[in-house]
Design goal:
Nucleotidyltransferase, domain 5, 295 residues, alpha+beta, elongated, 4-stranded mixed beta sheet, 13 helices, 12% strand, single chain
Length: 295
């Protein structure tokens, strides 16, 4: 804008010719003439004709490759150098800088939407509950103590219950569930657990992951409460803890032992025994008297 004002002052105020203005400003006479024809207050702009670069034919491939890499783990994503080698194999004759600049500009724009996702969680009443532990500090009798708080929250109504314990033992876990279920007035259909030490005894990788370990074991134990009754499950859990084997199978065995054995029904019949059975003791003695060759 300053150069345009300078040219207009030279031409209209000082009365200089186009050749003199061109000599003083180092601009061509055609440029000076075009600028003077512009209306006052408008600045001429140099417009370069857009030409497709060497990378234009490969931008679609690079975009598709980057979008695919977003769904892969970070260790499996291709670097700009790896993408440069791929487009070179397809006939790209430019340099590495164009590819790296394209990747650097694309990632902040195209990489963000896929990393931010929200999945709404909806639960029916009585469908599920969440359980976890937290470590808290309390001053009891002037002494600071560390306690473990058991948290249970219903997923639908968000009603919750807390119970404090000195540790996270299995007996504390079952007692916390008993107190929380009693306070909340029932047992939901399923439970959602994190990888708690009291709920997960062992975690394997791949085929070594056994269904007996982990949250499934605790869920199976709690699933027996509606059928067997809370008191029976608590007694069976205490017996299982005393034996040192705390798992769903052992708990079911303890519950089976606690159930009263039904009496064998007496069947009335008109049949009578005509001859009482007689033991053939003589045959038994003869067999014992025979010498048996073990060779």
């Amino acid at each position: 804008m300053a150069t345009l004002g300078k040219i207009r002052r030279m031409y209209y105020r000082d009365g200089l010719s186009l050749s003199e203005i061109s000599r003083r400003t180092s601009l061509s006479r055609n440029t000076v003439r075009d600028w003077l024809k512009k209306p006052e207050g408008s600045e001429p702009k140099y417009r370069r004709q857009a030409k497709p670069g060497k990378l234009a034919a490969f931008e679609a491939f690079l975009t598709q490759s980057l979008e695919t890499d977003l769904r892969r783990p970070k260790r499996d994503r291709r670097t700009a150098r790896a993408l440069f080698a791929e487009v070179q194999a397809q006939g790209y004759s430019g340099g590495h800088t164009l590819v790296s600049d394209f990747v650097r500009k694309w990632r902040p724009q195209g990489g963000k939407p896929l990393t931010r996702a929200y999945v709404p969680l909806r639960f029916e009443l009585g469908e599920a509950f969440q359980f976890d532990w937290s470590e808290e500090g309390l001053v009891i009798g002037g002494v600071w103590r560390r306690i473990l708080a058991a948290h249970m929250k219903l997923c639908a109504s968000r009603a919750f219950m807390l119970a404090a314990y000195p540790s996270q033992g299995h007996e504390m876990l079952f007692d916390a569930h008993t107190r929380c279920f009693t306070a909340l007035g029932g047992i939901p259909k399923r439970g959602i657990y994190d990888d708690m030490k009291t709920a997960v005894d062992k975690v394997g990788a791949g085929e070594a992951r056994h269904p007996e370990y982990g949250d499934l074991s605790v869920a199976e134990m709690l699933a027996t409460v509606p059928k067997a009754g809370l008191e029976a499950v608590l007694v069976a859990a205490e017996l299982a803890l005393e034996s040192g084997a705390v798992n769903a199978e052992h708990l079911h065995n303890m519950l089976a032992r606690l159930r009263p054995t039904p009496a064998i029904p007496r069947v009335e019949t008109d049949l009578t025994v005509l001859e009482a059975p007689v033991a053939d003791a003589g045959r038994y003695d003869r067999l014992r008297a025979q010498e048996v060759d073990h060779a």
